[in-house]
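Batch manifest, entry 17 of 40.
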Amino acid sequence: MSAGRRRVLSLRRRTFTLLLLGGATIVLNLVLAWLDSQLKDTGGPSILGLEFAGNLGRVEEIQGEWGKHGEYLARISLWVDFGFMASYGAFFALACASVRDFAADRGLRRLAAVGVVAPACAVAAALFDVAENSLWLLVLGGHLGEPAPPIATACACLKFLLIAVAIVYSLVGLVAWLRRRR
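Output type: structure tokens
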């Protein structure tokens, strides 16, 4: 098989994988949004309120606002989020790698250079999300106290920062690809 044919097959496989992961990310995000709306209906904050609680006192306030049903919904949301982490982490890692390869092939050196770290940002974001959710599940289960909430909140901040880098890089790459198609 020629190198050109392998590249076309690889591109098709990559495109299919991106579509599959993107679809999973969207579906899981919709499930999480529905769970979050149910969580807000309990009278407490969304799951973001927990993610940025920062200390055990605030976590206990949130638990009081949610009640038992809200805590149950929060735990379900945290568990579903593990699937979301896998899908968004893989999707944006592959999207960033695709942008990097496109940029390298087209001589877009600066874009390709950023692409050396952008896929790792997506993976790291998902890993920080894993650590964060694991801590929140243990805190909500009464198995951990301080300093778990501030550590989980720090993980949330790093997660959002890193995934923002991957998202912006992917979007810049998409714009560059669209401009090159004209």
